[in-house]
Amino acid sequence: MDSFGVYLHVPFCATRCGYCDFNTYTASQLGTAGPGATQGDYLDAIVRELQMAVANNPDAARPADTVFVGGGTPSLLGAEGLRKLLDGVRDTFGLADGAEVTTESNPESTSPEFFEGLKEAGFTRVSLGMQSAVPHVLATLDRTHTPGRPAAAVAEARAAGFEHINLDVIYGTPGESMADLDTTLEAVLATEVNHVSAYSLIVEPGTAMARKVRRGELPMPDDDDLADRYERIDAALSAAGFSWYEVSNWSKPGGACRHNMLYWRDGNWWGAGPGAHSHLDGRRFYNVKHPARYSAMVAAGELPVKDSEDLTPEDRHVEKIMLGLRLSEGVAAAALREEELRRARRQAEAGMLRFVGEGEGERVQLTDRGRLLADAIIVDILS
Fold first, then answer.
1. Mapping DSSP to helix (H, G, I), strand (E, B) and coil, where does residue 358 land?
2. Which of 97, 157, 267, 268 supports an S-S bond with 262, CB 3.0-4.6 Å?
3. Sign (positive or negative) of CA dihedral 156, 159, 160, 164
4. How far apart are CA 323 and CA 319, in angstroms?
5. Do residues 366 and 242 touch, judged by C-beta distance below 8 A?
6. Half-sphere exposure at residue 115, Cβ-oriented, CA atoms within 13 angstroms
7. pLDDT tens-digit map of 203-248
8. CA-to-CA distance for 334 and 364, rounded, in angstroms?
9. How many angstroms separate the CA atoms of 103 and 270, rounded?
10. Max CA-CA distance within the chain?
11. In Å, how far from its chain's centre is CA 153?
């Protein structure tokens, strides 16, 4: 709980995937945005934001135990651009001994030289967007990489000295068969990575995929089918030596992502970059989203914060339970209020939760069945 993290948001993508609703922009979208929208402007601005963050918030100036560069497509910045971001953290917040430093990457914008540069810069972990190993599934998702490229990227990262490598998978894409999913799982396991994130496809409002679903060109994913696929993924990963530690994340021993654990344990982090969110001791705030506006505010010497809120004790309680129950470690039974505890015991009788330990060490955890309905169970407990 004492860990501190820094998140750096890279808003650039070569193309926009049809399912994505993240704060990202292609070159064509930024071409007429005016000053501040180039990658060079962005790099200068984010380093300046880090400097202002420490100068204006001295109480938050503590060495980062974890750094996570997300997007967008951070690998579009190249190893030198990512080095500049990490150096910005080093020169402001600082890096704790043994810090975990992760960057997301699109396999198509990586190379042996890229991974060697990352390793030299001080990165310790790489997360690669695979999504699927099947061409027609990638086409439906509007993914641009070729099916075999993620495995090649993993091999290149390992050759550069990376021990901690994650592959992201999306399941439940319209048109994906169980055989397609098995093909993807076989490809994932063949790489021998030590971390896998698997997310069910969510059709987000306003995306290109949502418009196709609305027009009847693609079917809406089915909840029962998604549950079957989740069980398939869990069985395959478990048989290969992975353990789930969060509902959508599996790792081999020692491979859990420390930065994401910081989020789920309701820790503190500073988020820098367009649209980035932060949390410091019960206060949440987030930056303006557009890169040009972001860069203009930083250039004017203004922290690019759009809005903030101070969480009430009730807010913090809800988030503690909501986030903690998604973890395999669960939450302390003592953290639940009397009525919540009663509902949790009712869920345990239904086989969705289990109580482990005794006395002050008693904890509430999701069962394997409960993971399939985690959101509904959490809502029931907190209602």
1. coil
2. 267
3. positive
4. 6
5. no
6. 25
7. 888 888 889 989 999 998 999 999 999 999 999 999 999 999 999 9
8. 9
9. 16
10. 62
11. 19
